[in-house]
Amino acid sequence: MMKRIQSALFALWISVSCVLTIAAGLFIILYIFIKGFKTITWEFLLSNPGGIPIGVEGGIFPAIIGSLLLMLISIVFAFILALATAVYIVFYCESQRLENTAHVIIQCMAGIPSIVLGLFGYTVMVVSLNMGRSLLSAGLTLGIMIFPFIQVRIEKAFREFSKSVLNASYSLGVSKVYTIFRLILPQCRRDIVSSITLAGGFAMGAAAPIMLTGAVIFAPAPKALSSPVMALPLHLYILSNESISMEKSYATALVLIAILITINIFAITLTLWRKEVKR
Amino acid sequence: MNVLELKDFNAYYGNKKIINNLNMAIKRNKITAIIGPSGCGKSTLLLSLNRMLEEVEGRTEGQILFNGKNIYSISKEEIRRRIGIVFQKPTPFPFSIYKNLTYAPIYYGVRDKKRLDEIAKGKLIISGLYEEVKDEIHASALKLSGGQQQRLCIARALTVEPEVLLLDEPCSALDIKNTANIEKMLLNLAKDYTIVIVTHNLSQAKRISDYTAFMLDGELIEYDETHRIFSFPKDKRTKEYIEGIYG
What we know:
The structure holds two protein chains of two kinds. By secondary structure, chain A is an all-alpha fold.
């Protein structure tokens, strides 16, 4: 009797949790969709913000472009470093102590609050390196934020690679570099692409790291790496926090969420496809 | 004529001694079988011969001479190109049959498409796989059966034109028909290559090898022409092993 009550309670607990989580997620998306959808027009998507205070009229075109560019810069920067770090740790590092140290540092990096990263980017890039508040400073700061995220996933993909197939390659007398580029990377490509897209979505949704390093209240779509940019999350924050326009902030949120969902679906499809191929 | 010569050779994993003071010479263009119970150091010996032992964190003492030259004075890439190895479990690369066979030649600078085609076809013919796969040479190597995969791995090891081919129980996961295929192929290969095969299967050693070495607990107990080992073993332990006393 006791056992049956226990399992019934357990079943209730897991099913209610599951329903609540899905409901909350759906509610957020639907709520934003309903509140924001009527404001979305081609003009909203394709024009600069206007009016006084700025944002009351017009659209969010520079913010969309700004966010996409920030994402692009951050993933290029983070990917190059993450790939190299993972290759070093898995295939070259001989010292277990160095490997452990690297892992601890990478985990700590993943735990740094994003606003602290913003402050770091501000002191190092904006002030010390004199890069100013710019697309580049903000993109690099976001890159530092998503670096551990990508590195961990690439390293995991490398570690899952069959050791015996790896040795078969070495036994042909080919070099490590050739093995990595011709055998391992092509096999891990899908894992790498899906980790990059997920990390890109993460970077795009972050406001804190870019507030101090490059994102501004108003700027036209950037023409150079040194221009300041608008970004969707910060624009959303300004619109709602300063009570400039609630309709427009919901519409901005909807655009941001739509882009993030698209990116996530893309990444998930890639991952699922890879699993099927493996079977 | 000896291709490989081991002198006072020891091998370790960590502090554990796997091979103890082994002296042995391997003859050119002959098939040499290494037999012995599990854990006697046969596979370790094989891995030592082309410096693959380094990849599994083993270390060695003593000398191994390849054509009279210490293998540690030759780069590990070079020694592995000239002494190929095929493992117990088939290890096809997860791409097409053709790409498996051109993987190493491309590394060694063969760029000409026609030359690559020739290499792939030639090695498939040697390994007896050509008739079976000629229409699907661009299909994934993972779709082949276990026996075909193993023959592909042997063909792949031959694409770099080694002098010696090491085989670590290549047939242990295969059925009788595939085993017979591989044995036939090895007998053919012995004309051009020196073959060293580790095997658990005594009748296999008897069928194909010219020389047989019997190892026990990391030591070489007896090494002679195969028919002598099987008909007139000198050591009591060899006799017991081939009569089936040890597992």
